[in-house]
Amino acid sequence: MADLFAYSNRRPESPANGCTYCFDPVHTADLICVTDLWRVRLHPKQAHLGAYIVYTARHVLNVSNLSSAEFSEFGVIMARLEQSLERAFGAVLLNYSCWMNYAFRADDPNPPCQNGVPSPHVHWQIHPRYDRDVEVDGLRFEDPTFGAP
Ligand SMILES: [Zn+2]
Question: Of 26, 67, 115, 145, which sits 20 to 30 A from 15 (CA to CA)?
């Protein structure tokens, strides 16, 4: 578990816009996969085994600004990752969240990023859920609130 948290500490300083998602994939140690339009990386907090973040390759501020190609490829990526987590760890379901709270500022709807926060960059946090304990590489992962938020 400790190694999973360490991955996020290996990233270089934020790029010029300060966004925590606008890194060249080569500088993202916890990258799971890359497509032309999307990136998938391990969630720095493994509150649920296999939690990950899916984010656009380009800096997009709102879901409504995604292209049809990005929406289409998003569906393909999510289907493949869902199947992978089911096969690899026995995930029963996946929770998806797209929180855009940092994307809005009343005085500046397109705020500059500061030290990576806020990051008004479209992304989803995915949390696989398990109805039983799962052991991976000698570590036991529990999901004591399975079936509840
Ligand atoms: Zn960005």
Answer: 67
Buried b (16+ CB within 10 A) or exposed e, 123-132: bbbbbbbbee
Residue 113 has what DSSP assignment? P
What domains can you pick out in the chain, each with its CATH number? 2-141 (3.30.428.10)
DSSP 23: S
Ligand 1: distance of its center to the CA of 116 in Å? 9
Residues with CB under 5 A from ligand 1 (ion): 19, 21-22, 59, 121
**pTM of the predicted model as reported, rounded to 2 decimal places:** 0.79
- How many A from CA of 93 to the centre of ligand 1? 28
pLDDT band at 2 (very low <50, low <70, confident <90, very high): very low
Cα torsion 82, 85, 86, 87: sign: positive
Beta strands in 67-145 (DSSP E): 93-97, 123-129, 134-136, 139-141
| Per-residue pLDDT band at 135 (split at 50, 70, 90) | very high
